[in-house]
Write a structure and sequence with these properties.
The protein is an alpha/beta fold. Helix content is 58%, strand content 13%. It contains 17 helices and 16 strands. It has helices at 37-47, 121-129, 148-151, 154-164, 168-272, 276-313, 327-345, 349-371, 384-421, 427-475, 497-502, 505-525, 530-595, 672-689, 706-719, 732-736, 759-766, and strands at residues 2-9, 18-21, 26-30, 77-85, 97-105, 110-114, 117-119, 140-141, 599-611, 618-620, 626-628, 646-658, 694-698, 724-728, 740-746, 752-758. The strands form 4 sheets. Strands 2-1-4-5-6-7 form a 6-stranded antiparallel sheet. The longest helix has 105 residues, at 168-272. It is rod-shaped and about 180 Å long. The two termini are 32 Å apart.
């Protein structure tokens, strides 16, 4: 890589665009004091990103801009361009020519351009560090700074040597790794804080999820029990309906035949004789038959209403399994039995038998109504009060019908006894009629019982459908699977349909009550917002797991960064120690050349000092700010904690010199000239061990006599083999070694102007 040229525009005294080309290995810049020569050296610092205005003889960025004169207006901005030949790709850019430009505006803002594209200062610094170039490194020695290497502290001297050895890029990388490590620690604290904040809510949600899971288990158990209940109820209703139909077929057919027989016998009797007693008997029997039909209808209606009342009672827990019987109903039952028995005792043996059979059926129906008292049914269309009122009315009407039926039955018995006493030719037909009517009465009682049973099945089926609806609300379409459900007994045997039908109905009733209790528990558990809670818990859990992974990643990153820092520190130490050895050899050699003998050496030292976080270098961060590059011994200290003192172990470099023919040792004993020669020897030694692409020396030869100037010139020619040299000088000997000579002048307008002479071309012309 070679420096091709520098272009100044509006920078300090260079009001107009000025370009210096560096076609020779050694370029000298000369001119009277105050002409602006040193502004060229400062322009290099400026373009390379120097942030200290003091080192460029200014207080703020505006001081770098041409401030105007009587004949030339002030500039709005200053810019400096450095053009490099990058054919060897020393700079990590795929361009043969690299142009680095810095612009400062009147408002103090800066712009950095790389091949006309705006970049950050950090990008420029990192790019140049690869080629051992920096804004204020060892390769730019301004006027009065030649002695800086000697007057600097051991720590500062070490930093200069690190810069000279090309270790800046490693320092940047290590500091960047430390910055990332600090950022990683901050991020870890933030993530841990987030997890701590998340933990109570996650525990709460976990508790809610546990409740939901318990409720879900309760729901699943309820679903299984519902399937069993519905399966058993379905089988029971199906088989009972089938049996009821079969039991009704024969009595209904026989009843129809008896109706035909009775109608025929009555017609025969009407034709054979118009007996008033027979007619009266037929009339009474017809009324009794109508009363019995009305009585049966009332019994069925009353049973239905009692079932509805029992269904309402099931809506709340029943304190006792035994149902109370109204006293009026008991009294009606007793009166009916007494009337029937009184009437039967006055009749024949067959009439007594028929009466007893009827009383048995009546008693069974009475017991069934008591047993079903308390069953659940829900008829929302009729209120409880209306049902009670209707029940009372029906009970009164039933009582009146039963009295009327008993009275008619007694009259029929008396009339039958009278007719039976008659001895005529119609006796046989009447007897057949009496037998048929008696049998028909038996069948009607049986059919009434079957009808009541069928009505009960209808009510059970309605209740079953209601239960299916409630189950569907809990289980959805899965409730339809009850038909395919297979049940097993505790013994492990499969439960058959016959087993379900033969089971005591009180067991099924207990199952229903358990279902009701379990539904109440499920409602109390409250699953209304279960899906939202589960979703929130899942999202919160995933967030916590993500943060946990982030912590692991950050820990792994911290471990990796610590490893990188250790690796870079080891590399820095190894290269620094090796570089010091090489610089020592070159330093001693140059020192002997400058002084004609003697010796000089560098030594690593460590001392404990109290530090306040002094900064050693600064680069811009991605957001345009700065970060500090500290030496190895610095434990930290920023502007925030700069007033905190820490006792730290500083590693630095001490210089030991021994002049020929003198017993003087140590830098403090050197004269001004001897210090200048020693500084030059050290600067040249650093530049020879790790040659920079170019070296700028601003009047570093000012204090040299003629003999030392020749030695200085010889060393310059040696260095020019490895680096381009740009020399700002008044020394004739130094000028004589240059291939190109630029002269800087300044007129009355205060603007610096440039003249150039190429000695190689002039020599060729002279020959």
């Amino acid at each position: 890589m070679r420096l091709k040229s520098i272009e100044l525009s509006g920078f300090k005294s260079f009001a107009k665009k000025t370009e210096l080309e560096f076609a020779s290995a050694i370029t000298s810049i000369v001119g009277p004091n105050g002409s602006g020569k040193s502004n060229i050296a400062e322009s290099f610092r400026f373009a390379l990103g120097e942030q200290s205005m003091k080192s460029m003889r200014g207080r703020r960025g505006e001081d770098m801009i041409w401030n105007g004169s009587q004949n030339s207006p002030r500039a709005g901005r200053a810019s400096v361009k450095l053009i490099f030949d990058n054919a060897d790709r020393a700079l990590a850019l795929d361009f043969d020519e690299v142009v680095i430009e810095r612009v400062v505006n009147r408002d103090g803002t800066n712009q950095y351009l790389l091949n006309s594209s705006e970049v950050r200062l950090r990008d420029v610094a990192e790019l140049l560090a690869q080629a051992n170039i920096g804004s204020s490194s060892h390769h730019i020695i301004s006027q009065g700074e030649a002695d800086r290497a000697l007057s600097a502290s051991p720590r500062e001297r070490r930093e200069m040597l690190e810069d000279a050895l090309g270790l800046t890029s490693f320092l940047y990388k290590r500091q960047e790794a430390k910055r990332k490590l600090e950022k990683t620690a901050e991020n870890s604290q933030k993530v841990e804080s987030l997890r701590r904040e998340l933990a109570p809510h996650l525990r709460f949600l976990a508790g809610q999820v546990k409740k939901i899971e318990d409720s879900q288990k309760l729901r699943d158990d309820l679903g299984q029990k519902y399937l069993e209940y519905l399966k058993r109820e379905s089988v029971y209703l199906r088989i009972q309906k089938s049996l009821a139909k079969e039991e009704r077929d024969a009595p209904e057919k026989e009843h129809a035949l008896l109706n035909q027989t009775i109608a025929h016998l009555r017609s025969v009797l009407e034709k054979k004789r118009e007996d008033s007693e027979t007619n009266e008997l037929m009339r009474l029997e017809s009324e009794m038959h109508g009363a019995a039909g009305r009585r049966d209808a009332l019994v069925r209606e009353l049973g239905r209403i009692e079932g509805e009342l029992a269904a309402e009672a099931r809506m709340v827990p029943v304190p006792s399994k035994e149902a109370s019987v109204p006293s009026g109903e008991v009294r009606t039952f007793v009166e009916r039995v007494e009337q029937e028995l009184d009437a039967a005792l006055k009749g024949s043996e067959s009439e007594i038998k028929n009466t007893l059979l009827g009383l048995v059926v009546f008693a069974q129906e009475f017991l069934r109504r008591i047993a079903t008292r308390g069953e659940i049914a829900h008829k929302p269309a009729v209120s409880h009060e209306e049902l009670l009122e209707k029940k009372t009315r029906l009970e009164n009407e039933l009582q009146e019908i039963q009295k009327k039926e008993g009275s008619l039955r007694a009259e029929v018995s008396v009339l039958r006894l009278q007719i039976e006493g008659e001895k005529d030719e119609n006796r046989s037909a009447e007897r057949e009629l009496f037998v048929a009517m008696s049998r028909r009465s038996e069948l009607e009682v049986a059919l009434a019982r079957l009808e009541a049973r069928a009505q009960a099945l209808v009510e059970d089926e309605a209740r079953f459908k209601a239960e299916c609806g409630e189950a569907a609300a809990l289980m959805g379409r899965a409730v339809m699977e009850y038909e395919n459900t297979v049940l097993y007994a505790q013994s492990g045997d499969m439960v058959t349909d016959a087993d379900m039908v033969d089971e005591d109905r009180t067991v099924q009733g207990e199952r229903r009550r358990k279902l009701e209790r379990q539904k109440i528990r499920l409602e109390e558990a409250g699953l209304g917002s279960a899906s939202e809670i589960l979703k929130e818990h899942q999202e919160t859990l995933e967030r916590d797991q993500f943060l946990a992974r982030e912590l692991n990643d950050l820990a792994a990153s911290a471990e990796s960064l610590n490893g990188l820092i250790d690796e870079l520190t080891g590399t820095l130490e190894a290269r620094f120690v090796g570089g010091i050895e090489k610089i020592n050899v070159a330093f001693n050699s140059f020192f002997q050349v400058m002084f004609g003998g003697g010796s000089a050496s560098l030594a690593l030292v460590a001392e404990k000092k109290k530090t306040r976080g002094a900064k050693s270098a600064a680069l811009d961060t991605e957001d345009g700010g700065y970060f500090e590059v500290k030496g190895e011994g610095d434990k930290g200290g920023s502007e925030e904690n700069g007033d905190e003192e820490d006792e730290d172990k500083e590693e630095g470099v001490e210089i030991t010199v021994s002049l020929p023919h003198k017993r003087l040792k140590g830098l403090h004993a050197l004269s001004g000239g001897e210090r200048a020669l020693t500084s030059i020897a050290l600067i040249f030694a650093m530049s020879q061990v790790n040659p920079p692409p170019f070296l700028i020396l601003d009047e570093t030869d000012a204090a040299l006599d003629e003999a030392n100037s020749r030695r200085y010139g010889d060393m310059i020619e040696t260095l020019a083999r490895h680096s381009q040299l740009i020399l700002i000088t008044h020394n004739r000997e130094t000028m004589s070694r240059a291939g190109v000579l630029y002269g800087v002048t300044m007129g009355s307008d205060g603007v610096s102007k440039l003249l150039s002479v190429k000695f190689e071309e002039a020599l060729a012309v002279a020959k």
